[in-house]
Specification:
The protein is of the alpha/beta class. It folds into 2 domains: 44-191, 3-Layer(aba) Sandwich (Rossmann fold); 199-324, HUPs (Rossmann fold). The protein contains 10 helices and 14 strands. It has helices at 3-18, 53-63, 95-111, 127-138, 151-158, 160-168, 208-218, 238-260, 275-285, 309-316, and strands spanning 44-48, 70-78, 80-81, 88-89, 116-124, 142-146, 173-176, 178-183, 186-191, 199-203, 225-232, 265-272, 290-294, 321-324. The protein has a 10-stranded mixed beta sheet, sandwiched between helices. Strands 3-4 form a two-stranded antiparallel sheet. A two-stranded antiparallel sheet has the order 8-9.
Length: 328
């Protein structure tokens, strides 16, 4: 039984479990896992903060993240190596930074009374490693990192910290972005989190990994609209490409029907072209609130952890990006 047939059968099961369907006996329905149960999928979130204005704006988004109950505010004190060799020089956590961390904690608690907020500080020469290690130790379901800011967060977009987190983390990752507006040398930030899951662009390749990402999306609270996107990027002849396009339209329609049956607004797009350009371009065209991608897949998804299409999208998209890790 293919994953897509299972999805359709799950919808039938969910309907039958809540309401008797005339003419159908319980024994006629295959026993398959329930698909689409709305449960809090991201209850515990870790946010790596650098106390920048950008980070403060991101706090507003985290406070409103559907299902969030436990927030860990995490700060890394960089541990530099001695220029003369002989080991590392311990970083110092200044009183001012401690006060800033407390202020951010109070800000989150004021934004939502239902949040339990804890603060964690680590000294490390491996910023990405400290973030990943803490996320695994604390059992968080989502790591949130900013795309721009000072020190830590600024390095995430441009340097090795982002690459390390995306490649090494076994936890789902959300890269937050804000529109940066500069007027008369003064920076302001326009948030994308008017409803982070208001309009979700979900690129899929019909692998079991993208099926898992769709399943997780369907079980996440707060999803208003989903745009399913498949890119046809290969084909020896025009006829072969067109055949692939038509096949993809049939597959994507099966998934659309399953999600729509849960009350989620769903649209589908099948395009030809370069996956990175199409994903980032459509995200802007459709004014999506977030791009939701699997970390693994087949074809143009499979090499994500080596820096291929999905990694490029995560680093260069102008919208927030959620990277869903492959199922164990």
């Amino acid at each position: 039984m293919t994953p897509h047939i299972k999805i359709a059968l799950n919808i039938v099961n969910s309907i039958y479990c809540s309401k008797r369907v005339p003419g159908i006996s319980p024994g006629l329905l295959p026993a398959v896992p329930y698909f689409g149960r709305m449960t809090p999928m991201f209850e515990k979130i870790l946010f790596a903060t650098d106390f920048s204005e950008y980070a403060k704006r991101t706090l507003d988004c985290i406070a409103g993240f559907p299902g969030a109950r436990d927030i860990i505010l995490f700060h890394v004190v960089e541990q530099a190596r001695s220029p003369r060799g002989g080991g590392e020089v311990g970083g110092t956590f200044q009183t001012g930074e401690n006060n800033l961390l407390r202020e951010e904690k109070r800000r989150l608690e004021n934004l939502s009374q239902n949040l339990h907020v804890t603060t964690v500080v680590k000294t490390s020469s491996d910023t990405a490693g400290a973030i990943i290690e803490t996320a695994e130790e604390r059992g968080v379901s989502l790591i949130v990192i900013g795309a721009r800011g000072n020190s830590l967060v600024e390095g995430i977009l441009l340097g090795s910290v982002s690459m390390a987190i995306l490649r090494r983390s076994r936890t789902n990752v959300l890269i937050m972005r804000h529109k940066i507006i500069e007027e008369m040398k003064i920076k302001t930030y326009e948030m994308f989190c008017r409803g982070l899951l208001f309009r979700v662009l979900c690129p899929i390749d019909f692998s079991r990994f993208s099926d898992s990402a769709i399943d997780l999306l369907s079980r996440t609270k707060g999803v208003r609209e989903v745009i399913l996107l498949h890119i046809v990027s290969q084909g020896e002849t025009e006829a072969e490409i067109e055949e692939t396009v038509q096949k993809a339209k049939g597959q994507i329609e099966t998934i659309r029907s399953s999600l729509a049956a849960q009350g989620i607004g769903v649209r589908t797009i099948v395009r030809r072209g370069n996956p990175t350009f199409e994903i980032t371009g459509i995200a802007d065209e459709e004014d999506v609130s977030v791009i939701w991608m699997s970390s693994h897949g087949k074809g143009w998804f499979r090499d994500l952890l080596l820096g291929s299409t999905a990694y490029t999208v995560a680093m260069n998209a102008k919208r927030p990006v959620v990277i869903i890790r492959k199922p164990e």
